[in-house]
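Quick one:
INPUT:
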């Protein structure tokens, strides 16, 4: 089964809970609390004094009333981040394996109707990309593709991951929704994490924004994190693309989805990412979404602008609600804001990013056409070295890898341990 319209949502998935949580998400948008009373700043302050927050508290922190208590939310988010993550911040970069896509997502520069240069990396080109990116010092990579099962299906992704795993101890994927078996294949090839954005948790809006292609199947995508966890993925990053619908609703639902998944898989390394919509690639992409709606061909779509203040509220609310969860911030955001958000909950940042396919190895020779074929415009253009230096200057520890598998391929674990310890059999007490 692969994203066909006959897909039946799993009964143990999040889909059956959508209808239960959506009303609460809609109340948040209207600044009402769970008792249908207007949310107040006093209530927000009371919630921020609690030790543990429940889903009603989370809803309240996303309300317009909480926007008036942003400093108090920032203080709480800062304290939670320090308590759970200290001053360590992880660095990573995306690596685009291909940009063919059969979907028509109206907000994306890679969608099937876009007349952009398309390519998919050969194994040799992936190797070259991996070497170029690893030379920057990064040890975490996120492999991305569009959604084209013929050109970049699960077997291709698994092959690409296996190549990347030779250069990076941590390889994540951000690809089309896969089946459990496909996730297992990719996991066996060396992927340890996956990122999946539901885009929006409003099924009706989702249908209007995803005009054609396998991604139109809302439920198949919604169940993807569950399938990936089931298949053995160590880490899962989830979230919504802010600006498609009402951000308060989507952040609330993303939090509920994450909480549900964590209950189901307590060992899971859960993280969130909340990208804001950016100008897309293509002829009409050069202006900011604030002045140029992304709907020239799809005139019904107007992005909902999420202000910086609202964005800070979304991130701090999520940090207060799920203090253990990682929070990833992309280079879509500008450097100044990214640096400030490190204090408020962000634990992982991308650096030295190129969103063009083949963009790392070919940075000196890549054609203008290929350079134009980027999925979205990045704002923070700092190199890896510069980002690491800036983190240190701000008092943070840049973390390139927080765990390393010993080299040695199929070496028996006891043998690997023997090598690591310099001979466990010789130690007192050894059997
Ligand atoms: S968002 Fe993803 S699936 Fe949709 S058009 Fe872009 S690359 Fe394709």
């Amino acid at each position: 089964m692969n994203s066909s319209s006959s897909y039946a949502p799993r009964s143990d998935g999040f889909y059956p809970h959508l209808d239960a949580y959506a009303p609460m998400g809609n109340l948040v948008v209207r600044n009402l609390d769970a008792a249908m009373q207007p949310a107040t700043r006093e209530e927000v302050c009371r919630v921020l004094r609690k030790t543990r927050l429940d889903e009603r508290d989370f809803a309240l922190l996303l309300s317009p009333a909480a926007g008036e208590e942003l400093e108090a939310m920032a203080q709480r988010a800062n304290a939670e981040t320090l308590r759970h993550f200290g001053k360590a911040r992880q660095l990573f970069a995306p690596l685009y394996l291909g940009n063919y896509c059969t979907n028509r997502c109206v907000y994306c520069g890679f969608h099937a109707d876009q007349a952009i240069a398309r390519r998919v990396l050969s194994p040799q080109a992936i190797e070259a990309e991996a070497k170029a990116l690893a030379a920057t010092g990064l040890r975490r990579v996120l492999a991305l593709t569009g959604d084209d099962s013929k050109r970049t299906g699960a077997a291709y992704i698994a092959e690409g991951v296996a190549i990347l795993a030779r250069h990076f101890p941590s390889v994540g994927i951000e690809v089309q929704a896969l089946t459990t078996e496909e996730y297992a294949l990719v996991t066996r090839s060396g992927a340890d994490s996956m990122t999946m954005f539901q885009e929006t948790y409003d099924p009706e809006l989702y249908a209007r924004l995803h005009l054609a292609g396998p991604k139109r199947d809302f439920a198949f995508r919604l169940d993807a994190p569950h399938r990936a966890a089931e298949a053995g993925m160590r880490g899962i990053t989830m979230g919504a693309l802010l600006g498609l619908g009402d951000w308060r609703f989507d952040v609330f639902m993303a939090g509920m989805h994450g909480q549900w998944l964590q209950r189901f898989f307590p060992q899971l390394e859960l993280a969130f990412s909340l990208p804001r919509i950016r100008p897309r690639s293509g002829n009409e992409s050069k202006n900011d979404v604030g002045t140029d709606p992304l709907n020239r061909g799809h005139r019904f779509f107007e992005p909902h602008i999420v202000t910086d203040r609202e964005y800070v509220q979304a991130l701090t609310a999520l940090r207060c609600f799920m203090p253990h969860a990682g929070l990833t911030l992309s280079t879509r955001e500008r450097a100044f804001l990214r640096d400030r958000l490190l204090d408020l909950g962000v634990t992982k940042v991308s650096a030295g990013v190129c969103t063009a396919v083949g963009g790392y190895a070919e940075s000196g020779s890549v054609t203008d056409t290929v350079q134009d074929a980027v999925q979205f415009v990045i704002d923070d253009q700092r190199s890896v070295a510069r980002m690491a230096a800036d983190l240190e200057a701000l008092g943070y520890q840049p973390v390139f890898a927080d765990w390393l598998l010993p080299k040695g391929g199929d070496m028996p674990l006891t043998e690997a341990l023997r090598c690591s310890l310099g001979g466990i059999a010789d130690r007192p007490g050894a059997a």
